[in-house]
Design goal:
Low-confidence stretches: 22-32, 34-65
Largest sheet: 8 strands, antiparallel, barrel
Strand order of the largest sheet: 1-2-3-4-5-6-7-9
Number of helices: 2
Helix content: 10-25%
Number of strands: 9
CATH architecture of the largest domain: Beta Barrel
Number of domains: 2
CATH topology of the largest domain: Porin
Order of helices and strands: HHEEEEEEEEE
CATH class of the largest domain: Mainly Beta
């Protein structure tokens, strides 16, 4: 009798062990299937789409919040007056600086468009022939529009248009002051925070210290190197 009970207990234990082993194997198999499926769909156990993150990081574009986003710009460069500059001509190459801000308004994929506001710009040139004339120009708050397009990782191109009032002073003894509305069109390329570009300013100014009704050309070309932060 005792031997029969012992045999029954042994068989019961063996059956329970076999059942547990089968359940564990099924569970492990289901877990492996689930893990494999999630791996194929690019998801981990937390449900994060790894393939999506990978595709974003490898897209080669920093996004509009980066290279084509808004920011402060500071540029300095060379200034080339036209042959009819202030009705005199003959002014030499000068220097130009500007400080402003690009405010991004709209973003569509790799493209952004916004307001380009130059808070202050200034330039200097000199006429040195039979007499010496120094011409200093300044302009405050030049609003305009700018478009930017990201063409590659950390590289973008831009086009812009601005307008504003320009004040120019010829500083020789008994010099004259000129003021008027001027325009500028330009383009540039940005690599990371560095900017390289050019602009063409055009318009005419009135002499504020004489009764002369004539307008004088302020046309000039500039190239610049700067940063956008």
């Amino acid at each position: 009798m005792k031997n029969k009970k012992l045999i029954l207990i042994t068989l019961l234990i063996a059956g329970i062990s076999a059942f547990a082993g089968t359940t564990s194997a099924v569970s492990n198999g289901e877990f492996l299937k689930e893990a494999t499926a999630k791996k194929k769909t690019g998801k981990n156990i937390l449900g994060v789409n790894a393939s999506s993150l990978l595709s974003r990081s490898n897209s080669g574009l920093p996004g509009l919040s980066g290279i084509t986003g808004g920011g402060v710009f500071i540029n300095a460069g060379l200034f080339f007056p036209s042959s009819s500059y202030l009705g005199i001509g003959g002014f030499s190459m000068g220097y130009d600086v500007e400080w402003g801000h690009y405010f991004k308004l709209v973003k569509v994929s790799q493209f952004s468009i916004g307001i380009r506001a130059t808070w202050i710009s200034a330039s200097y040139t000199k006429f040195d022939n039979f007499i010496t004339l120094n011409a200093v120009s300044a302009s405050l708050l030049r609003p305009g529009i700018q478009g930017m397009y990201a063409i590659k990782d950390h590289i973008a191109v831009n086009l812009f248009y601005q307008l504003g009032f320009d004040y120019t002073r010829i500083t020789e003894s008994g010099g004259n002051s000129f003021i008027g509305l001027t325009h500028e069109i330009g383009a540039g390329i940005q690599w990371r925070i560095l900017n390289l570009g050019f602009g063409y300013r055009f318009g005419s100014l009135k002499n504020t210290e004489s009764g002369d009704p004539a307008s004088y050309s302020i046309n000039n070309f500039r190239v610049y190197l700067g940063i956008k932060l």
